[in-house]
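Cont'd.
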Amino acid sequence: MSDAATLADERPRRRDAQATRGRILAAAKDRFGRLGYEGASLREIAAEAGADVALISRYFGGKEGLFTEALKASIQPDRVQAWDRATFARDVASMMADVHREEDRHQHFQFLLRAATSPTTAPLLNVAVQERFLAPIRDWLGGEDAQARARVLAAVFIGFLVERLIRGEPLRGRERDVFIERAAAAFQAVMSEG
Amino acid sequence: MSDAATLADERPRRRDAQATRGRILAAAKDRFGRLGYEGASLREIAAEAGADVALISRYFGGKEGLFTEALKASIQPDRVQAWDRATFARDVASMMADVHREEDRHQHFQFLLRAATSPTTAPLLNVAVQERFLAPIRDWLGGEDAQARARVLAAVFIGFLVERLIRGEPLRGRERDVFIERAAAAFQAVMSEG
DNA sequence: AGTGGATGTCAATGACTGTTGACTTATGAA
DNA sequence: TTCATAAGTCAACAGTCATTGACATCCACT
């Protein structure tokens, strides 16, 4: 109920279909990310968005439609070309070490992870990841067996992400340092050609 | 229904509480692993085991009881001490490359992965993994910051597992070779001291 | 000011969930 | 063979779920 209060204003709101659509989508990402596809209910999502359940079916065609829409909105191709080869490994490592700091990034990854490991939604995610994530990384890596290396890179990335998301606590002090150092080393080992 | 037929023999069976308990447990691991905690229903599990739904509540006390029982049975501490330092990285890498070959191992890992990423069950798994998995690996690794290094090792391990389980297809030919080589390199980078 | 279409509300539906208690049947010891 | 009891069956329960169609309300346009 306090969750709902954050997004749902009890005061009568100005009617705006696009705005409510947006609120529903935001609530969906949050709820799906936190509870998974089966665990999240449309009623909760609607409540958190301060909207009526019926609107979800109306706007998104149903639960699955809402999910795929949220998924599409969550997978925006990053500007891979801009990454710096020299600092990439360490940058990513330290970003992941502090996932919990940035609330929206945390939620974002959590949503994607749940989507990846839910059997109903995994196929949907796979093609998207392949096209908008793996392919750019492959090109960015270049060299021999770029495809396979990109895959391994993604695997390591996912691994650290899972580790971070499952343990709720953020990393601190020496443990954080070791984590970053080792994660960077792992990335480097995977990236390097030959 | 064809799933049920594999385990459930339509012929009248000899009454044996322990045997049906076992069949239910096996079906639970399969179903929970495939569909997650929320996605799997007790009726499906019972059908696959060729038993009645009511027996689950009777024998395991309910859905959560069944799950934790299946979890306990799935996390048996491996004989970590016996691992060979020299070949460890490569052994694990090639084992994971061929996860799909061994059906029961595949199912086993899938179950654990779903348990890890389902919000209702993650806490249950975390303590078990910490005690029976991370602690032994920490001792096996030894040296400075063994705890943190063990954690990173586990993270990489999970990453490859997720990658393998999400993409259904087994690895073949050159792609498999590259995968093993890079995975081994990643493990090595994480394990090595200093 | 009035009106038509967009926007939001409400209640009901049928399907499925986990759990419970009373019931029947098989089994192994007397 | 008898019979107590373990093992398995069945039906019903109270809830929750997603989805739908009819209804009320608002708002921008004429």
